[in-house]
Design brief:
Strand content: 25-35%
Number of strands: 15
Number of helices: 2
Length: 235
Amino acid sequence: MKTLLVLFGLVLVASVAYAGDDNAAPVPVVTRDACTLTFTSYFWDFNVSAQGFTPAACDVSGTPVWAWGAEATIPGSPGNVWGTVLNGTYPSDAGDGLLSPPFMVTPNAYLLEVNHYVHFETNFDGCNVSVDGAVITPTTGYPATISTSTSFYAHCVDLEPGWTGNSFSGPSQNWVAQCFDLTAYMGQMIQVSFDMGTDSSVTYPGWYLAYVAVGSDAPVSVDEANWGGIKALYR
């Protein structure tokens, strides 16, 4: 029992120490929230190519940062990724979005899975996902509101919910799959934007995307009437 108490105390001390220091050894506590994709309609693997994703300004005063290519500095990197400055840290006053190709939300394509790595200045810098300018939330929620101080402004994501800090860190836990439910957009053609923003000081590696997938937890057959409506959208 004494040994267990000592171990518990060491873990508690380590957790407290890490909470106030972005450079401290990370505590390997992380939420994995991958979708249960038994059917995949779209799979954009960034190790293969840029997959038609394009940078798109989300704040005209923010510095563009998104780039596709080889990333070797992030542990566990799959190789080629979309990242906010490859093999380096993002600049101060960065603000940029990354836009997916258009796709239709259907019963076979309503779960969005993002495999990514996040490391920002805690609270002041961060990132989130949006559709038509409205932030969408992963099924387990975002951990924080970005830029909690009125003295600093995080371009694109200021005072919005999102990911911040290095909450996905730990041995073999650097890359995390997060799931979004897109049923609110059922039947609509949408594009998903991956928005990031930073304030005027302190920089970190940022945000890196390994792949994005869209599918469902069970395939649904498409009858001729519905299929005709889907095809009409592409004419």
